[in-house]
Amino acid sequence: MAEETIFSKILRKEIPADIVYEDDRVTAFRDINPKAPTHILIIPNYNIPTVNEVTEKDEAVIGHIFVVAAKIAEQEGIAEKGYRLIVNCNEHGGQEVYHLHIHLLGGQRLGRMVV
Ligand code: DGP
């Protein structure tokens, strides 16, 4: 079993989060420390710690995250202008929370790919 993170508490509604979308497979909520006007995290409803632990059994949920990302981008009014999806992995990737998540960032022209 993967270790619990703060995101497990958000999934169980033990701590508050601004949830913008949820279904039986994924949950999306606004990042507590937004780096752009729209900054939403989309996570699977079970913990995969990092991309390194993704296996074939996760393919459907990972694909679903992209479907939901597109829906949320539309909902947020940023689909047409565009946005960025980011997944950080481990230390060099700058990962802080070890529950796989995709950052959905938009609402302004974004800067460089890599800082
Ligand atoms: P990463 O570096 O990719 O692991 O990003 C983790 C993100 O999670 C970071 O942008 C801040 C966000 N975050 C951390 N704790 C919380 C929390 O308790 N609530 C919310 N909404 N976001 C959080």
User: How many structural domains does the protein architecture include?
Assistant: 1
Oligomer: single chain
Summed up, the helix count is 3
| Helical content (DSSP H or I, runs of 4+) | 10-25%
Tell me the series of helices and strands, N- to C-terminal.
HEEEHEHE
Instruction: Give the CATH topology.
Output: HIT family, subunit A
CATH architectural name = 2-Layer Sandwich
Mean of pLDDT: 96
Q: Strand order within the widest sheet?
A: 1-2-3-5-4
**Strand count:** 5
The low-pLDDT segments are none
Structural class: alpha+beta
CATH class: Alpha Beta
Notes on the structure:
The protein contains three helices and five strands; from the N terminus they run αβββαβαβ. Strand 2 and strand 3 form a beta hairpin. The chain has a five-stranded antiparallel β-sheet with strand order 1-2-3-5-4, with helices on one face. It is 23% helix and 22% strand. It has a single domain, classed as 2-Layer Sandwich (HIT family, subunit A), CATH 3.30.428.10. By secondary structure, it is of the alpha+beta class. It binds 2'-deoxyguanosine-5'-monophosphate (DGP). The site of 2'-deoxyguanosine-5'-monophosphate has 13 residues, from strand 2.
Describe the structure using short key phrases.
single chain; 115 residues; alpha+beta; HIT family, subunit A; 5-stranded antiparallel β-sheet; 3 helices; 5 strands; 23% helix; globular; binds 2'-deoxyguanosine-5'-monophosphate
